[in-house]
Amino acid sequence: MFSRIFIERPRLAAVVSLILLLAGGISLANLPVAEYPEIAPPTLFVSATYSGASADVVAQTVAMPLENEINGVEDLLYFSSTSSNSGSYSCSVTFRSGTDSDIALVNLQNAVKRAEAQLPSEVTKVGITVEKRGNDILAMLAFQTDGTSLSLNELVNYVNNNANTAKSFSNAPSKSASISYYGRLTYNYDDRYNVQAIFRADAYDSSKLSRQARWGYFPSFSAGWTISNERFIKDNVSRDILSLMKLRASWGRNGNVNVLNNYRYATTISKNGSWYQYDIADGVLSYGSGPSGLANPNLKWETSEQIDVGLDTRFFSDRLTFTADYFYKTTKDLLISITPVAETGISSTTINAGRVLNTGLELEASWRDNIGDFNYSVSANFSTLNNRVTYLDPSVSRIESDRGQFATFRNAFEVGYPIWYFRGYQYDGVDHETGEPIYHDFNGDGTVNDEDRTYIGKGIPDYTYGITVNLSYKGFDFLLFGTGVGGNDIFSILYRADRPFHNSLAYYYENAWTPDNKDATMPAPSAVASSEMFWSSSAQVFNGAYFKIKQIQLGYTIPENITKRFAVSRLRVYASLDDYFTITSYPGLDPETASSGTSNMGVDMGSYPTSKKLVFGVNLTF
Known about the structure:
This protein has helices spanning 55-70, 101-116, 152-160, 231-234, 506-510, 525-528, 560-563, and strands at 2-7, 13-20, 76-84, 88-96, 124-133, 136-144, 178-189, 193-204, 215-226, 242-256, 269-276, 286-291, 302-315, 320-338, 349-371, 374-384, 386-392, 399-400, 410-413, 421-424, 427-430, 437-439, 454-457, 463-473, 476-486, 489-492, 541-543, 546-558, 570-584, 603-604, 613-621. By secondary structure, it is mainly β. The strands form 7 sheets. Strands 7, 8, 9, 10, 13, 14, 15, 16, 17, 24, 25, 28, 29 and 31 form a 14-stranded antiparallel sheet that branches. A 4-stranded antiparallel sheet has the order 1-3-4-2. The chain has a 4-stranded antiparallel sheet with strand order 18-19-20-23, with no helix packed on it. Helix 1 (55-70) packs across helix 2 (101-116). 21% of the residues are buried.
């Protein structure tokens, strides 16, 4: 690769870029469209194709004539260029500040036109469009090798007068709108019985849903009974023993349309957006238009309904508190992106196609007390979650996440399983004589293939928990805070079969089969280094449970009789260990960060671990 730069003198300026991509095909530069004060020349993007050219050939046949012509353009400040062995050339042209953008554009086009006459005969222009919007330029340039060509003026006139010319812009300013109505009614009787009703209505503009479906209506109701205020409790149980007991229940509905945009319920015609070959024997492609998507006028709000029953209690003069909640949540009309049948020519469309059930129990308890000057409190929480897909549209048997680098392992969304579970091959161990991996043949046909992929794990924890401890004695204070999860799995994708020189977990090496270690749990590295089946199997699934001490902090508050001498009302110094200790069996970097989004939950693609921190600090109050 070579690069060069010519500079006249530094001066504030704007850039006009000429880009020649000499690789093979037509490319289109999409520029933002906005009206800005024209204080500098616009940016012109031109793209083209050229094959089989080394950097030296490009320099002699393309770069040299272009640079000779561009270097003579009026008001040029400087330009730089780069060529590569892949047959590409780019040139960035900068004009003096204050140069008229229209003049700069014409001068650059004329320079390119003169340079074209010096290009090799097999490189001929067949189409260019240049359009100016405000201070921006959109341009497309294509080359072919059949010997035909058009002059620059003919091309510009032809394209600008052609109603079918495709002009595509991105990052343009946009507007969206929503409206909501909200009302609440509450009633309380004698601090024993209370009820509440809420009604909410939401609507978005037509970019999300049609006029007929844009409104969503979301009611909710709750009721509470403070049992501790009933006479049969107040007259028989001391407040020092039971200060609060409240039973509550609620039902509510809410909605979601966040995944919708760009009028997915309708479709438009994408003008000149596709190539089509009409004749199998003739390789000539025709440039044409087609639907931009598959319309679904029946799209509607995704809704969730949840029932919650809970109990709040406080005992022993509020020193002991305990809260319990049970929830039952159903999400229906789930908005899902699916791949239609190939005959439609559409890669994806959105439908209301699913239903998901979440149930669980949430518990929280705390105790606080003091012994003289020593104060302490301990609180803990524990919650469970059972997640299942209960329905999918009959046209959808299963939805699998897209993971191009792994053709067989997927996160899957399927009835009867947790959302986005791991789907791959079941690894059954090692052939102790050969070191080869063994996989489960579920259909019993004697061959392990795609039909034998199955459930091998899930990224959603069955339970989560946490603990907080606070201690204080006179000016000293201490905090310990930790969280943990369990019942979840992690699928490690730190290694790829198509890149055998990448690093992997030491776990596979330490547990690998060798002639001297035939009882190993992992196969010989040579047997699986390039095996996509092994790296897409349950051999990559690890227990994702962990307990992490998120913070240990020790502080000391200087007595006020000392700090007031310096006009400081409170001075506290502290030291803290943050995310320092993790208890886990996962051999990867960090089980807490080992996930890659909703549809890839539990998949560790090498996520950066949470850093361990030693912190010293001072709190000052004046």
